[in-house]
Amino acid sequence: MQDEAEITISGSKLSDAESMTVRVAIDTLANVLAEGVEDQDAQSLTELYLESLKRIQSLLDTRASRKQ
């Protein structure tokens, strides 16, 4: 099992539960956006969000193994 990523926002370090919440929210948003947007004007923005989300997800997936 792995620890959640260490996330700091404006100098405040999030707890594991808060970091998990951020990770799940990011994963959920990525899944929703990956399903596609019908509005042509929103597609370019969606692609930018997906690119950023993939980078963030990659960083979150590199969290250290949980110490026993």
Please sum up the structure shown:
By secondary structure, the chain is mainly alpha-helical.
Give a verbal description of the structure.
The protein has 68 residues and is mainly α. The protein has one domain. It is 59% helix and 6% strand. The protein has a two-stranded antiparallel ribbon with strand order 1-2. A hairpin with a 2-residue loop joins strand 1 (8-9) and strand 2 (12-13). Helix 1 runs antiparallel to helix 2 (40-60). The model has no long low-confidence stretch (mean pLDDT 82).
Main features:
68 residues; mainly alpha; 59% helix; elongated
Chart the SSEs and their pairings:
Layout lengths: L7 E2 L2 E2 L2 H19 L5 H21 L8
Antiparallel strand pairs: 1-2
Helix pairs in contact: 1-2
How would you classify the helix and strand content by structural class? mainly alpha
If you compute it from the alpha carbons, what radius of gyration comes out, rounded to the nearest whole angstrom? Answer: 14 Å
How many strands, what sense, and barrel or not for the largest sheet? Answer: 2 strands, antiparallel
- The oligomeric state is single chain
Mean pLDDT: 82
Count of alpha/pi helices: 2
